[in-house]
Amino acid sequence: MKGPVEIAPGVHGLGSEYVNWYLVEEGGRLTAVDAGLPAFAKHLDDDLRALGRRRSDVAAVVLTHSDIDHTGVVNELREGGARVLVHSADEGTLARPRQKTGDASPRNALPYLRNATMWRLLAHMVRGGAARPRAVTGAETFEDGDVLDVPGSPRAVHTPGHTPGHCVLLFESARALFAGDALCTFNPLTGERGTQLMPFPLNVDNEACLTSLDKIEPLDADVLLPGHGDPARETPAAAAARARSLR
Ligand SMILES: [Zn+2]
Fold first, then answer.
1. pLDDT at 132
2. Over the chain (247 residues), what is each successive 10-residue block's mean pLDDT?
3. Ion ligand 1 — residues with CB < 5 Å
């Protein structure tokens, strides 16, 4: 997604062809869901201007997780006055970015080395500043089930697997589910389209990713907004079923 693109009333998608972040509007104030790559800072003000907004209109950044392609412009938004919120289990890696563990070992990525999409993604990430992750300290934390006191009042649903503190965010009034990297609609290693789990070597615990689909399935929404790939106009139940069928 490049943006800003209006996906639903008051819901805007931004980012690049590989990496998405979002702005949700309520009562003239904005919540950012994730914050893309560090290089997105270069066009942050232009993106906001295209929406008739500026940094100080962003009241909060809610992170689905702490990976570096989701936290890029957090510090810029915070300088503009935004609060930063993340699940407690990802607060440590947000404050001190480090290599992922568990299933997410470089060895598990070896089978993907012949894949051109993976190399394009890597180049995009490096150009986007992901090789120099930026620490974000002092974030507020939330827990599973919390309804966050930010514009749009999203409910956080803890869906560990991609990271220990990964959450999907349900904005009930917009009928939108922000899936983070619990689900994607573009496989960043193979280029395959369609709703699916993130590829094996990018998740710290693939069994947990599958179990987390059980928590996504009953949620009530009309559109699924992933960290990677186009929005999917499908219910969380359909998305979860499709992702399971591919395993
Ligand atoms: Zn991601």
1. 78
2. 88 96 97 97 96 97 97 96 98 92 85 85 86 88 98 98 98 97 95 96 96 98 98 97 93
3. 69, 181, 227
**What pLDDT is recorded for position 49?**
97
How far is ligand 1, taken at its centre, from the CA of residue 228, in Å? Answer: 6
What's the gap in Å between 65 CA and the centre of ligand 1? Answer: 9
- Measured between alpha carbons, how far is 102 from 162 in angstroms, rounded to an integer? 10
CA atoms 63, 45, 39, 109: torsion sign: positive
CATH superfamily assigned to domain 5-245:
Ribonuclease Z/Hydroxyacylglutathione hydrolase-like (3.60.15.10)
**pLDDT value of residue 185:** 98
Residue showing tokens 């800003």: 4
What is the reported pLDDT for 1? 67
CA 187 / ligand 1 centre spacing (Å): 10
Give the pLDDT score at 47.
97
Ligand 1: centre distance to CA 185 (Å): 12
Spatial CA neighbour of 39 closest among 118, 125, 123, 135: 125
Q: Where do the structural domains in the chain lie, given as residue ranges?
A: 5-245
| Cα-to-centroid distance, 59 and ligand 1 (Å) | 23
Angstrom distance (rounded) from CA 58 to CA 29: 6
- Cα–Cα nearest to 85, from 56, 57, 60, 59: 60
**Confidence (pLDDT) at 212:** 98
Distance CA 171, CA 156 (A): 9
Predicted pLDDT at 240: 98
